[in-house]
């Protein structure tokens, strides 16, 4: 132990002799380790702990009807869910939930909150215990005649009710309906929808629910999670549920047309939430961070090897005095470990901040998205492992190579003590080649991601983005009944349409590419479902002139009119995808279609396709219903402006409040802002890759400069002699440049092979650009080549100034 402490003190003394190297190496390693630990913290927070506060989330699975789908639909009706819960043999519990926006209307200020309607076993299956009070009991799951019961989130309890312990048993108002608080969820628990914060939990007989969806098997509105029994695999559980589903389909065939297969996903990949969308992006970011760490280690290893080579005479003297090679290696390795330990500690401090930066990538959205990393023991272990790996790459490897010193030769020949031998020169060259190759691969990937972001920003989603402003209104918060709300909506529409600068105003309950999804089961007359054919369609309630507001043209048929109200025959407008899917080669206008509530609709128009959620998505059937033929629905006003829509925001808000000052107005955004959510992954990829591509470029430049400068310094006497013997300065320039550019050519060649291998892996993440885009590859090669030329020219310029007289005198 005494010897080890002496070696540590010796390592610290050696590092203090060269503070520039110590600070530079520590900072570079700290940044590289922090990049990796930050992504690890994001993975830990979003994928390894998808439901904060839940017990053993690895045993939880989400259930989806149909094949794996990044944009799925709620899989089950309540009767189907009840049968699966009671008949399965694979789960210790299966829970169900649905979610929506509601408002707390009691008190001085109404508050809009995200609410989940849940099965009575919701908290038990998740393994969550109440902070205060209790959770739901089985007999309370469906009580349509009773006062609804509610559970508050810890944050809502603290923020709205000041943490009042007497809240349990109190009656509060939700959407002007009395509900009874029976408990408070534990701190940190945000619900079962990964990445989406919920603040209230009601039973499955929510406020304003019609009895239809609690009794009919066509009303598929429930998201399902299950906890596997010990020893049961997802595959076995999947077969169990499909057996039950086949029995249900056989018993109720008319209610189960189309797809009825079951898919189970682990919670980290659950499509019902925000986390599932990160499953493809985060591993790519981790790979990018890993490349940066390897690059940094190669750069620091180069600097370390140069230091150790410069100390060959010292090492030779110590060997001649009896020091064993392993003792010398241990001392040199400890220098690398000290650097890595300091870098790891700095990375830990940095990660405590950067782990929370995930939210910076998330644009404004109507959903309460909560995506952040966590700094727990998993991440700390990761930082320690990365620091150890860095110490091995930066310290152990160079130490082992440079400790093999022929003592007699070095002590006899001063030049040998400086040059370090051809093996170390080859190793330095190899490290530079690795840096150039990795830099090229990273720069190519970064360029492709930047191209993707540019293409997404300029892509046309099928609707107007630049001159549309939207505003959501909470009429239920203001206490309006359904009948009064209809009158108010008409008044607001008239006021908005009359505003100077507004050309069209309309109303909807859904915005495209807004990270929300509304669906219904559709049963077209005369359509025979194919095997594995889904009858789910996207839907939206809209008013007349909605398509004019968004610039979506009609293919045939007509728009809705004010006469298409609840007293008129039910009508639909569909998009081209729906028409081709259900009635290929036919005129869809006049066709009949029954939706999940057994209501028969007539198609009166067909519009062009537009994107629903993502620019890269496969188009799904979409139906539009008349807003005035629906019951209670969300209220989102849209105006098409003649100028900058953002400048119209104050006037739009004032027009709405001019009808009633008590109406809450929220989420006032341009359509361009709303659609930013569809670009979040491209923004993350391009930002992260671009940032570290710059770092990689700098590392590669410093690496090649350092090695060429070092090797040029070793040949200073030779160059002076060459000049004395008649070599021109151009000859010297050529000699040094070729020395560095040859390494560059090898690095670029290997880098191209690596880049083409990596771009195949990211092909699915690109948009509008080939994984082998020649302009991107050529641009990167030119940039790296120019950088290498500059890095080689600087030491060459110094070499050209070598004094031949001094060189000859030295010889």
TrEMBL record:
<feature type="transmembrane region" description="Helical">
    <location>
        <begin position="688"/>
        <end position="711"/>
    </location>
</feature>
<keyword id="KW-0472">Membrane</keyword>
<dbReference type="GO" id="GO:0022857">
    <property type="term" value="F:transmembrane transporter activity"/>
</dbReference>
<feature type="domain" description="MacB-like periplasmic core">
    <location>
        <begin position="430"/>
        <end position="657"/>
    </location>
</feature>
<dbReference type="Pfam" id="PF12704">
    <property type="entry name" value="MacB_PCD"/>
</dbReference>
<protein>
    <submittedName>
        <fullName>ABC transporter permease</fullName>
    </submittedName>
</protein>
<feature type="domain" description="ABC3 transporter permease C-terminal">
    <location>
        <begin position="287"/>
        <end position="406"/>
    </location>
</feature>
<comment type="similarity">
    <text>Belongs to the ABC-4 integral membrane protein family.</text>
</comment>
<feature type="transmembrane region" description="Helical">
    <location>
        <begin position="777"/>
        <end position="796"/>
    </location>
</feature>
<dbReference type="Pfam" id="PF02687">
    <property type="entry name" value="FtsX"/>
</dbReference>
<feature type="domain" description="MacB-like periplasmic core">
    <location>
        <begin position="27"/>
        <end position="243"/>
    </location>
</feature>
<dbReference type="InterPro" id="IPR025857">
    <property type="entry name" value="MacB_PCD"/>
</dbReference>
<dbReference type="InterPro" id="IPR050250">
    <property type="entry name" value="Macrolide_Exporter_MacB"/>
</dbReference>
<dbReference type="InterPro" id="IPR003838">
    <property type="entry name" value="ABC3_permease_C"/>
</dbReference>
<feature type="domain" description="ABC3 transporter permease C-terminal">
    <location>
        <begin position="691"/>
        <end position="804"/>
    </location>
</feature>
<feature type="transmembrane region" description="Helical">
    <location>
        <begin position="427"/>
        <end position="450"/>
    </location>
</feature>
<feature type="transmembrane region" description="Helical">
    <location>
        <begin position="331"/>
        <end position="353"/>
    </location>
</feature>
<keyword id="KW-1133">Transmembrane helix</keyword>
<feature type="transmembrane region" description="Helical">
    <location>
        <begin position="379"/>
        <end position="400"/>
    </location>
</feature>
<feature type="transmembrane region" description="Helical">
    <location>
        <begin position="732"/>
        <end position="757"/>
    </location>
</feature>
<keyword id="KW-1003">Cell membrane</keyword>
<dbReference type="GO" id="GO:0005886">
    <property type="term" value="C:plasma membrane"/>
</dbReference>
<dbReference type="InterPro" id="IPR017800">
    <property type="entry name" value="ADOP"/>
</dbReference>
<keyword id="KW-0812">Transmembrane</keyword>
<feature type="transmembrane region" description="Helical">
    <location>
        <begin position="21"/>
        <end position="43"/>
    </location>
</feature>
<feature type="transmembrane region" description="Helical">
    <location>
        <begin position="284"/>
        <end position="310"/>
    </location>
</feature>
């Amino acid at each position: 132990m005494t010897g080890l402490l002496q070696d540590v003190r010796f390592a610290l003394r050696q590092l203090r002799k060269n503070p520039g190297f110590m600070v530079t190496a520590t900072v570079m390693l700290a940044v590289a380790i922090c990049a990796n630990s930050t992504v690890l913290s994001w993975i830990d927070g979003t994928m390894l702990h998808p439901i904060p506060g839940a017990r053993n989330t690895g045993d939880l699975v989400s259930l989806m009807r149909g094949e794996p789908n990044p944009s799925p639909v709620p899989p089950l009706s309540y009767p189907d869910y009840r049968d699966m819960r009671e008949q399965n043999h694979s789960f210790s519990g299966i829970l169900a939930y649905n979610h929506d926006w509601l408002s707390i209307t009691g008190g001085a200020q109404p508050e809009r909150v995200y609410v989940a309607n849940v099965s009575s076993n919701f908290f038990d299956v998740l393994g969550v215990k109440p902070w205060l009070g209790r959770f739901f009991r089985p007999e309370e799951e469906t009580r349509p005649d009773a006062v609804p019961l509610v559970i508050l989130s810890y944050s809502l309890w603290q923020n709205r009710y000041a943490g009042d312990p007497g809240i349990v048993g109190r009656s509060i108002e939700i959407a002007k309906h009395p509900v009874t608080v029976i408990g408070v969820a534990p701190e940190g628990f945000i619900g079962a929808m990964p990445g989406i914060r919920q603040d209230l939990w009601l039973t499955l007989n929510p406020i304003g629910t019609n009895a239809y969806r609690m009794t009919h098997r066509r009303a598929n509105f429930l998201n399902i999670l299950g906890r596997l029994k010990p020893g049961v695999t997802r595959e076995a559980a999947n077969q169990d549920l499909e057996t039950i589903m086949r029995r249900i389909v056989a018993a109720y065939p008319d209610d189960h047309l189309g797809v009825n297969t079951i898919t189970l996903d682990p919670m980290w990949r659950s499509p019902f939430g925000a986390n599932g969308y990160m499953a493809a992006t985060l591993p790519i970011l981790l790979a990018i961070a890993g490349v940066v760490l390897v690059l940094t280690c190669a750069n620091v290893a180069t600097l370390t090897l140069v230091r150790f080579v410069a100390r060959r005479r010292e090492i030779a003297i110590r060997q001649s005095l009896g020091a064993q090679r392993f003792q010398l290696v241990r001392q040199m390795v400890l220098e690398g470990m000290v650097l890595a330990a300091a870098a790891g500690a700095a990375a830990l401090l940095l990660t405590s901040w950067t782990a929370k930066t995930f939210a910076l990538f998330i644009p404004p959205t109507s959903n309460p998205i909560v995506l952040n990393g966590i700094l727990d023991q998993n991440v700390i272990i990761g930082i320690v492992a990365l620091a150890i790996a860095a110490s091995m790459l930066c310290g152990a490897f160079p130490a082992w190579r440079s400790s093999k010193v022929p003592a007699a030769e070095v002590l006899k020949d001063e030049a040998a003590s400086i040059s370090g031998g051809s093996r170390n020169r080859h190793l330095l060259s190899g490290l530079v080649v690795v840096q150039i190759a990795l830099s090229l691969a990273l720069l190519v990937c970064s360029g492709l991601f930047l191209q993707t972001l540019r293409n997404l920003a300029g892509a046309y989603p099928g609707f107007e983005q630049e001159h549309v402003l939207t505003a959501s209104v909470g009429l239920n918060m203001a206490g309006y009944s359904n009948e009064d709300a209809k009158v108010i909506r008409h008044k607001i529409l008239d006021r908005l349409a009359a505003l100077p600068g507004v050309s069209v105003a309309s109303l909807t309950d859904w915005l495209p590419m807004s990270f929300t999804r509304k669906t219904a089961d559709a049963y077209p007359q005369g359509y025979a479902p194919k095997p594995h054919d889904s009858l789910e369609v996207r839907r939206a309630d809209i008013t007349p002139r909605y398509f004019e507001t968004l610039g979506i043209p009609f293919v045939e048929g007509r728009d809705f009119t004010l006469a298409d109200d609840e007293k008129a025959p039910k009508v639909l407008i569909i998009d081209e995808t729906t028409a081709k899917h259900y009635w290929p080669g036919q005129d869809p206008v006049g066709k009949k279609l029954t939706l999940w509530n057994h209501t028969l609709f007539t198609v009166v128009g067909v519009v062009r396709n537009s994107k629903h959620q993502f620019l890269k998505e496969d188009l799904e059937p979409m139906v539009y219903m008349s807003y005035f033929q629906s019951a209670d629905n969300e209220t989102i006003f849209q105006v098409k402006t003649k100028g900058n829509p953002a400048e119209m925001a104050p006037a739009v808000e004032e027009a709405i409040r001019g009808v009633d000052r008590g109406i809450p107005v929220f989420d006032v955004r341009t359509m361009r802002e709303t659609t930013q959510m569809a670009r979040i992954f491209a923004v993350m990829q391009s930002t992260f890759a671009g940032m570290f591509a710059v770092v990689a470029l700098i590392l590669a430049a410093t690496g090649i400069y350092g090695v060429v400068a070092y090797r040029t310094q070793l040949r200073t006497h030779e160059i002076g002699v060459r000049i004395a013997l008649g070599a021109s300065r151009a000859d010297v320039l050529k000699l040094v440049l070729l020395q560095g550019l040859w390494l560059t050519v090898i690095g670029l060649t290997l880098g191209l092979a690596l880049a083409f291998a990596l771009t195949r892996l990211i092909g699915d993440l690109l948009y509008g650009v080939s994984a082998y885009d020649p302009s991107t590859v050529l641009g990167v090669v030119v940039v790296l080549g120019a950088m290498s030329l500059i890095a080689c020219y600087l030491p060459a310029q110094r070499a050209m100034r070598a004094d031949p007289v001094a060189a000859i005198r030295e010889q």
